[in-house]
Write a structure and sequence with these properties.
About 25% of the residues lie in helices and about 30% in strands. It is α+β, with helices and mostly antiparallel strands. The protein folds into three domains: about 220 residues, Bira Bifunctional Protein, Domain 2 (BirA Bifunctional Protein, domain 2, 2-Layer Sandwich); about 130 residues, YbaK protein (Alpha-Beta Complex); about 90 residues, Rossmann fold, CATH 3.40.50. Strands 4, 8, 9, 10, 11, 12, 13, 22 and 25 form a nine-stranded mixed beta sheet that branches. The structure holds adenosine-5'-triphosphate and magnesium ion.
Length: about 575
């Protein structure tokens, strides 16, 4: 093994801070700043100091090795991009305020790349002409720009950040599925090597189709994503992708009965008035889908997730109805809508409103509700859609156990794009039969700088950062806890460790107490801390394992063999 470098803390460009930065909301933000890994430059824009740059490089190296291993080729495209391709794809305007736009001296429009589907499509169109040139997988590790609305979590959500983005180009759907599977497996290896606890969740709801897109999530309190996680089986999904199974019920029900219900403007007052739980009531939300009024039925105790509804019905536009929409619709009695007798309105319902279930709902008359309104007997559902907000304890779609909802950080996203960009740019290659074939594409991202913060979030403890060896800025942190003899022993330990191939941080700073140095070592979070202190004259050092906190006093020679 080759000799490694000893980085002296006395020369290191970075001061540890005792106080948390005032604007820091997340643990990783606080610790990465306090331990001297990053410095804020402007909102959402960060400088990587030597220790931080090392961690970023370690993550990049692992990403690079695993991308190379699946046969992806590394390139580097510009970050400064012309407007035209993004105009062709529609994203120049679709991106809205998220896009950094700028002009050159001639007044031509440019943007700073938020992601590069357009440019890679053009590159492949330029370079590949025959099916023999495909499949091809290309990647880059590059600075990306997004003018995020709330860049508040340190490097977790930057406006300038590092992303590994890759793109696959295939002639067939099977080819795309294979490229996707290769990426999925590579991502799993990357996060395993980094020791990052992660889940793969389906990112697209059922209606949009199966496995077209999956997210890699790192569970962490600071996460901005919520996902459903089953404690009993391996099911995990983005909350938007959770679907409740439709199970018809066999039961006898009494006849439909109308009941006067004055002064019951809310589900709560109605349920109290009738002495039934809110879950026995059926609430019917009216929405406009491409201008047509439709009703959406969900149990009274559940909220409709309008985002989820919009995603199910995309590309149709979903809007809430307004008072004006009721004006010429005497069939719609505001506040008393029931699916029975809704003749001119399409009825969408949550799968909990299954055939055979019985409900209390509006009677389509003012101040009146109806009970024993049975699905399949008194009304029909035109289409089932799971559109309620998922709640803890909802049944797992795979095994039925109660789901937990957890916070997580999105660290990666893999996507079977299909022919969207190939269509936009006319990307064809000459097929086996001599005819042009439209290329199909995948796109795959890892937030390299975000991964650094996600690792910090998952591994830090009350004493500071605590890196897994694969990402740590050094293998061992040697502390000279004293002048003269301890310093000499620390120097020789550092040299010996570096010669044995370990990356070493040596705290040789004069004039600092052993306590301060140890506190800093724990804050910086290198896997091993070797302290030359009181017993240095006997050649005895203390070896601390940062993650477990175990400490042992050992002769230096023995301590050197323990560091792995
Ligand atoms: P988010 O929902 O967190 O905004 P996204 O879905 O917009 O992310 P993608 O377009 O899927 O992000 O980008 C690929 C990866 O890049 C993400 O999975 C994430 O790890 C990373 N990433 C995205 N935005 C940022 C950001 N502002 N700062 C740091 N990393 C980011
Ligand atoms: Mg994403």
């Amino acid at each position: 093994m080759s000799t490694q470098h000893v980085q002296r803390m006395s020369r290191l460009l970075a001061k540890t801070l005792r106080e948390d930065p005032a604007d820091a909301e997340t643990l990783s933000h606080r610790l990465l700043v306090r331990a001297g890994y990053v410095r804020r430059s402007s909102a959402g824009v960060w400088t990587w100091l030597p220790l931080g740059k090392r961690v970023l490089e370690n993550v990049s190296r692992i990403v690079r090795e695993e991308m190379d291993a699946i046969g992806a080729q590394e390139v580097l495209l510009p970050a400064l991009l012309p407007r035209e391709p993004y105009e062709v794809s529609g994203r120049w305007s679709e991106y809205g305020d998220l896009l950094f736009r700028l002009k050159d001296r001639k007044g031509a429009d440019y943007l700073l790349g938020p992601t590069h589907e357009e440019i890679f499509t053009l590159l492949v169109k330029d370079q590949c002409t025959s099916y023999k040139d495909l499949p091809v997988m290309l990647y880059q590790i590059q600075t990306k720009y997004r003018d995020e609305a709330r860049p508040r979590s340190g490097v977790l959500r930057g406006r300038e950040f590092q992303m590994k983005d890759s793109y696959s180009f295939d002639v067939s759907d099977e080819g795309l599925a294979h490229s996707y599977a290769l990426h999925r497996a590579a991502y799993q290896r990357i996060f395993e090597r980094l020791g990052l606890d992660h889940r793969i969740v389906s990112a697209v709801s059922g209606a949009m189709g199966g496995s077209a897109s999956e997210e890699f999530l790192a569970p962490a309190r600071a996460g901005e994503d919520t996902f459903a996680d089953c404690p009993s089986c391996d099911y995990a999904a983005n909350t938007e992708a959770v679907t409740f199974a439709l199970t018809p019920v066999e039961a006898e029900h009494g006849p439909l009965e109308e009941i006067p219900t004055p002064d019951t403007p809310t589900i709560e007052t109605l349920a109290a008035h009738l002495g039934v739980p809110a879950s026995a009531t059926l609430k019917n939300l009216l929405v406009k889908v491409d201008g047509e009024i439709v009703a959406v039925g969900v149990p009274g105790d559940r909220e409709v997730d309008l985002g989820k509804l919009g995603e199910h019905l995309a590309p149709a536009v979903v809007e809430l109805v307004t008072a004006e929409d009721f004006a010429d619709r005497p069939d719609l009695v505001r506040g008393y809508v029931g699916p029975q007798g809704l003749e001119k309105v399409r009825y969408l319902a949550d799968p909990r409103v299954a055939p055979g279930t019985s409900w209390v709902t509006g009677a389509n008359k003012p101040d009146t509700h109806a009970r024993n309104v049975v699905c399949g007997r008194d009304f029909e559902v035109d289409r089932y859609l799971d559109v309620v907000v998922v709640e803890p304890g909802d049944p797992c779609p795979a095994c039925g156990s109660g789901l937990a909802l957890d916070r997580a950080i999105e660290i990666g996203h893999i996507f079977q794009l299909g022919r969207k960009y190939a269509d936009a740019f006319g990307l064809d290659v000459l097929g086996r039969e001599g005819k042009p074939v439209r290329v199909t594409m995948g796109s795959y991202g890892i937030g390299v700088s975000r991964v650094v913060a996600a690792l910090a979030e998952q591994t830090a403890d009350e004493r500071g950062l605590c890196w897994p060896a694969s990402a740590a800025p050094a293998d061992v942190h040697v502390v000279a806890a004293g002048k003269a003899v301890p310093l000499a022993l620390a120097e020789s330990a550092a040299t010996a460790l570096a010669e044995a191939g370990h990356r070493v941080l040596l705290d040789d700073r004069p004039g600092l107490s052993p306590g301060v140095k140890l506190t800093d070592a724990e804050l910086i979070g290198v896997p091993w801390i070797l302290v030359a202190g009181r017993r240095s004259a006997d050649g005895v050092v203390e070896l601390q394992h940062r993650a477990t906190g175990t400490r042992e006093e050992l002769p230096l020679a023995e301590a050197l063999t323990r560091v792995v």
